[in-house]
């Protein structure tokens, strides 16, 4: 269940360097507090309490809205970027031509995220800045 002041809860794999980097960017830019973040790689995380399997959550990024509905994969990424003010990226991910490319690219990255070479991780790495563990911004 999402917290009352958040519109979405993002469930991400904190053991994945690429995932952790992207979530760091979203956490940094979550100044309006629209998102809450849950690291599903933590040993005490209970997927069953959400009515989904851990395997499903680990396969793709999941975002749960306050009403309990789910967005998975590219739609979850799009909603998370929209909620943090990355409007250009969010709009681009809704364009049909971009969506046709983004979905298979996302699926491939999600499936191979632990096998990506270090040089590729460095290439796509974005500096996440400093954010509190629950995703709130801190003044730099």
UniProtKB/TrEMBL annotation:
InterPro entries: DCC1-like, DCC1_Trx. It holds the Pfam family DCC1-like. One of its GO terms (molecular function) is protein-disulfide reductase activity. This is Putative DCC family thiol-disulfide oxidoreductase YuxK. The lineage of its organism: Bacteria, Pseudomonadati, Pseudomonadota, Betaproteobacteria, Burkholderiales.
């Amino acid at each position: 269940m999402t917290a009352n002041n958040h519109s979405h809860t993002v469930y991400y794999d904190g053991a994945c360097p690429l995932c952790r980097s992207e979530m760091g960017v979203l956490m940094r830019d979550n100044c309006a507090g629209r998102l809450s973040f849950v690291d599903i790689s933590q040993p005490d995380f209970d997927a069953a309490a959400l009515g989904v399997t851990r395997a499903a959550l680990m396969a793709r990024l999941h975002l749960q809205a306050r009403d309990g509905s789910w967005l998975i994969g590219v739609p979850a990424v799009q909603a998370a970027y929209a909620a943090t003010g990355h409007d250009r990226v969010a709009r681009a991910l809704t364009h049909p031509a971009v969506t046709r490319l983004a979905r298979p690219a996302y699926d491939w990255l999600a499936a191979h995220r632990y096998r990506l070479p270090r040089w590729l991780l460095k290439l796509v790495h974005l500096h996440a800045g400093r954010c509190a563990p629950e995703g709130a911004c801190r003044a730099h």
